[in-house]
């Protein structure tokens, strides 16, 4: 299995506690409202904490697909959330899983500093293409920015 990682850092005007609540606890309700292709997010196993598996169903270009996300860790005290995409019809066959670690910290202006680490685990010797990396990055940043925008317009 190959392992490939990248990190992204960003800032947000939203305070970390509020941003963490929205991205971790409220995102199942918010995301389908702000990302039109996402039809639903449902828990298929677990209670929302570590070990929980969520099914995210999307319709793009008239085609329905889904991915399965597994919650790996939630640390309320340090505003850290970890989850992995582990399968589904909308998941690249060359990948074993894609893991995300998001950490929020207070910024001097009252907002948040955001650090996201994405780790791709490929099957066997499968290469990780730039196209797959960019697709995952674009979608994850899009969801994050969408939730941030929702918070700012719906305080």
Number of strands: 7
Q: How far do the termini sit from each other?
A: 44 Å
Count of helix runs: 3
Give the overall silhouette: globular
Identify the strand order in the major beta sheet. Answer: 1-7-6-5-4-3-2
Share of helical residues: 25-40%
**Would you identify the regions where 5 or more consecutive residues have pLDDT less than 50?**
none
Describe this structure in words.
The model has no long low-confidence stretch (mean pLDDT 91). Helix 1 (16-25) packs across helix 3 and helix 2 crosses helix 3 (130-153). Helices cover 27% and strands 46% of the residues. With 155 residues, it is α+β, with helices and mostly antiparallel strands. It is globular. The longest helix is centred in the C-terminal third of the chain and has 24 residues, at 130-153. It has a 7-stranded antiparallel sheet. The protein has 3 helices and 7 strands, in the order E-H-H-E-E-E-E-E-E-H. A hairpin with a 7-residue loop joins strand 2 (38-45) and strand 3.
Could you write a compact summary of the structure shown?
The protein is an alpha+beta fold and 155 residues long. The chain has helices at residues 16-25, 27-34, 130-153; strands at residues 2-12, 38-45, 53-60, 63-75, 80-87, 95-106, 112-122. Helix 2 (27-34) crosses helix 3.
Layout of strands and helices, then pairs:
Blueprint: E1 2-12, H1 16-25, H2 27-34, E2 38-45, E3 53-60, E4 63-75, E5 80-87, E6 95-106, E7 112-122, H3 130-153
Antiparallel strand pairs: 1-7, 2-3, 3-4, 4-5, 5-6, 6-7
Helix pairs in contact: 1-3, 2-3
């Amino acid at each position: 299995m190959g392992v490939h990682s990248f990190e992204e850092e960003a800032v947000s005007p939203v305070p970390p506690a509020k941003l963490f609540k929205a991205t971790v606890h409220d995102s199942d309700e918010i995301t389908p409202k702000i990302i039109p292709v996402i039809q639903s997010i449902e828990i298929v196993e677990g209670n929302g904490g570590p070990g929980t598996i969520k099914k995210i169903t999307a319709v793009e270009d008239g085609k329905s697909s889904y991915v399965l996300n597994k919650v790996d860790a939630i640390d309320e005290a340090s505003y850290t959330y970890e989850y992995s995409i582990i399968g589904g019809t909308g998941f690249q066959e060359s990948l074993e899983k894609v893991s995300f670690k998001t950490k929020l910290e207070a910024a001097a202006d009252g907002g948040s500093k955001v650090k996201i680490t994405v780790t791709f685990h490929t099957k066997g010797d499968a290469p990780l293409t730039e196209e797959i990396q960019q697709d995952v990055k674009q979608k994850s940043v899009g969801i994050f920015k969408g939730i941030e925008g929702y918070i700012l317009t719906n305080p």
